[in-house]
């Protein structure tokens, strides 16, 4: 279902309507990434998922589109990532050369770029993304950029005029291309000196922080990758070559005088094309830190699959406007909120929960965009992520299949004949919860059930009395979560005991900790017999 122009429930639908106005046979949607380090979930937002959502929105409108994922492996190798723990001396000679010509940091791969590209390509389909994979190195070497380079060279003076005007720079007399030195095979260290319409004179005498020129002087005819375009020209040249109609990029590119502004001007005035629709993508923060593939602060797509379903990442990315910062808290039970929001959208989609009309339609659309596999006719069985985290700790010796049986017997999942996809989903979430506990969970989420009341535990008389009353009421009947939760507060009120003191006392007895999971569901998960025994013994 696609909404009209005046009622967009999802930002991707609005973009699709804007693209619909462009008179093209097929829309070309681009993501571009430099494979200098690991591709992280922040990269996936701008370069994979946002284009894939627009691709889906266009498909829903019956409009033809194609998604390309361009790896800028012709970029310079300018930094050796710290997190790879490689011997820097083995790679220093390659600094300044194309990433595609640097040896792989990991055995089993030939080249640096190939290793990092294959790492993301091997997993992206698991997130429901199947773009065309395009190497900029191969594109240059095949001659695909030759025409664009000739246009830039023939219009050098105008290019520099536009460049200086937008960036407030001073590049008079510059020829805005990067010859690849025939002697050392570097481009960042070269300077184009003159162009006669046929041959390009250059010298390799520029010095960068990461590489020095070899002082070679040469002459070449620009063709098949012996000349590169600087980023500000490479970007619009790519639009020119492929007919790009939509692309996004990090917000830093959209700053005044940035590469978006120059790219749009070069598109109009040099390449004579209509610029694509572009939207900025904000940063993804994890634990208040910006992700960076080169610095080693990374949660890769494969890392994500260790602790969460791919649908949850898609849901997170579609449910925020691209221009909104996402602050993802992985090392906290706040992570559960993402899973809760996804489960809520699932219930709404299948008609098991109602919201106001606008929110209802929005959640349905979010859920549809989140899916990797074909939607089921009936709502899958749900298991709350926080409950999964509790049950794997309450019954650490049990297999995942046994945990499913326990959850079913205690009413934590629907008591119905589980379909195969239900079982698969439940087993997967339990395993993910185990992985998250082991690798990411904070200490206040982890616990061990006490067999006996902890030694040296000191409780006040009112706290003991409250626990004794809880033990008594637990034996009286079978409780529902909500009712038991309310009963705790009734007991505290009658005994003139603060809620804080009561809960701390309960967790002290059960876990030997001051805090723990939500008490009502936790007690019901443990089983009243065990809880009664511990509470009565204080």
Please give a structural write-up.
The protein has 538 residues and is of the alpha/beta class. The protein is built from 20 helices and 13 strands.
What's the alpha carbon Rg, rounded to whole Å?
A: 29 Å
Distance between the termini: 59 Å
Overall number of structural domains: 4
| Average predicted local confidence, pLDDT | 92
Beta-strand content estimate:
5-15%
Question: Could you list some keywords that capture this structure?
Answer:
alpha/beta, five-stranded parallel sheet
Layout: helices, strands, pairs:
Elements (H helix, E strand, L loop, with lengths): L10 H10 L6 E7 L7 H20 L4 E7 L40 H13 L7 E4 H6 L4 H9 L1 H12 L10 E2 L11 E5 L4 E4 L13 E4 L6 E2 L2 H12 L3 E5 L8 H11 L7 E5 L2 E3 L2 E2 L10 H7 L2 H9 L7 E3 L6 H15 L7 H14 L14 H10 L5 H10 L10 H20 L21 H16 L4 H14 L4 H13 L7 H8 L1 H9 L2
Parallel strand pairs: 1-2, 1-9, 2-3, 9-10, 11-13
Antiparallel strand pairs: 4-8, 5-6, 6-7, 11-12
Helix pairs in contact: 1-2, 2-10, 6-8, 7-8, 10-12, 11-12, 13-15, 13-19, 14-15, 16-18, 16-20, 17-19, 19-20
């Amino acid at each position: 279902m696609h909404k009209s122009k005046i009622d967009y429930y999802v930002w991707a639908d609005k973009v699709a309507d804007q693209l619909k106005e462009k008179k093209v046979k097929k829309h070309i949607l681009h993501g571009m990434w430099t494979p200098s380090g690991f591709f992280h979930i922040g990269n996936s937002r701008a370069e994979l998922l946002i284009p894939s959502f627009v691709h889906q929105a266009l498909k829903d409108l019956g409009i033809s589109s194609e998604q390309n994922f361009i790896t800028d492996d012709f970029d310079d190798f300018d930094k050796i990532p710290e997190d790879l723990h490689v011997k820097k001396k083995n790679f220093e000679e390659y600094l300044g050369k194309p990433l595609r010509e640097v040896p792989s940091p990991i055995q089993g791969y030939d080249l640096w770029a190939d290793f990092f590209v294959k790492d993301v390509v091997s997993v992206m389909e698991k997130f429901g993304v199947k773009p065309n994979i395009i190497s900029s190195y191969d594109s240059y070497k095949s001659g695909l950029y030759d025409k664009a380079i000739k246009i830039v060279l023939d219009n050098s003076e105008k290019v520099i005029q536009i460049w200086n005007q937008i960036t407030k720079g001073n590049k008079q007399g510059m020829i805005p291309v990067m010859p690849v030195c025939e002697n050392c095979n570097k481009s960042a260290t070269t300077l184009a000196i003159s162009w006669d319409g046929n041959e390009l004179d250059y010298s390799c005498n520029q010095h960068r922080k990461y590489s020095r020129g070899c002082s070679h002087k040469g002459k070449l005819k620009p063709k098949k990758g012996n000349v590169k375009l600087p980023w500000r020209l490479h970007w619009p040249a790519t639009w020119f070559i492929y007919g790009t109609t939509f692309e996004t990029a990090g917000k830093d590119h959209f700053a005044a005088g940035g590469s978006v502004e120059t790219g749009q001007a070069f598109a109009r005035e040099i390449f004579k094309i209509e610029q694509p629709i572009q939207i900025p993508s904000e940063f993804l923060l994890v634990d208040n830190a910006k992700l960076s593939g080169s610095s080693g602060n990374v949660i890769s797509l494969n890392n994500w699959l260790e602790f969460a379903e791919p649908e949850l990442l898609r849901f997170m990315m579609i449910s925020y406007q691209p221009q909104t910062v996402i602050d993802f808290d992985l090392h906290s039970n706040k992570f559960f909120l993402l899973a809760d929001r996804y489960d809520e959208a699932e219930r709404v989609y299948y008609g098991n929960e109602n919201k106001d009309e606008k929110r209802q339609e929005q959640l349905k659309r979010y859920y549809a965009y989140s899916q990797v596999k074909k939607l089921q006719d009936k709502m899958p069985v749900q298991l709350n992520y926080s409950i999964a985290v509790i049950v794997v700790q309450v019954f650490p010796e049990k297999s995942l299949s046994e945990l499913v049986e326990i959850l079913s017997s205690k009413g934590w999942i629907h008591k119905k004949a589980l379909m195969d996809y239900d079982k698969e989903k439940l087993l997967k979430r339990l395993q993910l919860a185990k992985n998250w506990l082991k690798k990411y969970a904070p200490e206040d989420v982890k616990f061990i059930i006490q067999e006996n009341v902890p030694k040296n535990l000191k409780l006040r008389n009112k706290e003991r009395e409250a626990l004794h009353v809880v033990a008594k009421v637990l034996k009286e009947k079978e409780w529902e979560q909500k009712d038991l939760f309310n009963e705790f507060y009734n007991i505290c009120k009658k005994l003139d005991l603060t809620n804080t003191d009561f809960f701390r006392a309960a967790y002290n007895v059960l876990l030997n900790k001051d805090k723990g999971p939500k008490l009502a569901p936790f007690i019901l998960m443990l089983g009243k017999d065990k809880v009664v025994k511990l509470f009565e013994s204080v």
